[in-house]
Specification:
10 helices, TIM Barrel, about 45% helix, alpha/beta, globular, about 10% strand
Length: about 260
């Protein structure tokens, strides 16, 4: 599971982490930038330290980015590490490639800016070929081994071509919620609304979760030997969760799988 810092309070208040065995913390920089909010670096660091002392601490913590300013982002990462937080830096689409060497030298990193823009206007104006070309250029410049998370990289074309160690997905819920897109049925513009037919909507979400679980397993099978050889661990596809409703959805999914 992946939790954005901007949703952390709701996630903790509703015990959403109870339905996962491992989670990672995203700084929420993109969400903050698109909503006009600001995240205080020192408060983020303090909250990271608090979370690191809990019974289920985040497996990885992503550093606080300054969207569009790789140098300011690097300063934030350095400060987080100086204060004892093992923060991962993110190399964003559109950044000059000379920054990639410093970002990847730490041995753990992420790729960002790759969430494709949907009908709602969120994300980046990238088609599939542009995303693949960016990743091709990045992987050709990295000195292995490097543990890499791909923000928004839940596409099978990416996961089965590049040996990411981790990726995340909001598509499991937002594709249906915003655009009526059901990946597991290859259906677009499905006129399904939770307010009209909760049972059907829930069944569709469970189908979505199963679809991405299958994709996760395919990526694991594809890269298992390489990941083991490089000590990168097992591939994880992390579902993005934001609050009580997501906890209920995953509890329903687990109940139906065990039935």
């Amino acid at each position: 599971m992946l939790v954005s810092y901007v949703n952390l309070a709701a996630v903790m208040r509703n015990n959403v982490l109870d339905v996962c065995d491992e989670w990672v913390l995203d700084s929420g920089a993109y969400s903050a930038a698109t909503s006009g909010k600001e995240i205080d670096l020192n408060k983020y660091i303090d909250d990271c330290h608090r979370l690191m002392k809990t019974k289920k601490p985040p497996k990885h913590i992503f550093g606080l980015d300054v969207i569009g300013d790789p140098e300011a982002s690097a300063k934030n990462i350095d400060e987080m590490r100086r204060q004892g937080v093992d923060a991962l830096a993110t190399f964003h689409y559109g950044s000059p490639y000379h920054y990639l060497k410093d970002v990847s030298a730490y041995g753990k990193m992420a790729f960002g800016g790759l969430v494709q823009r949907g009908a709602g206007g969120h994300g980046t104006r990238l088609d599939a070929s542009m995303r693949l070309r960016f990743l091709e250029n990045c992987f050709s410049r990295i000195d292995w081994p490097v543990w890499i998370h791909g923000f928004g990289c839940c596409d099978h074309k990416i996961l089965l071509k590049y040996p990411l160690a981790s990726a995340d997905s909001t598509s499991w819920v937002y594709s249906l919620q915003r655009y009526g897109h059901l990946q597991y049925l290859k259906v677009n513009n499905a006129n399904i609304r939770e307010s009209r037919d909760k049972a059907t909507y829930t069944s569709c979400l469970i189908g979505q979760i199963e679809h991405f679980r299958t994709l996760e397993q395919q990526a694991r099978d594809k890269w298992r030997r390489l990941h083991e050889k490089l000590g990168l661990g097992e591939f994880r596809l992390r579902f993005v969760a934001s609050g009580k409703t997501d906890r209920t959805r995953f509890e329903t999914y687990k109940q139906r799988r065990s039935a």
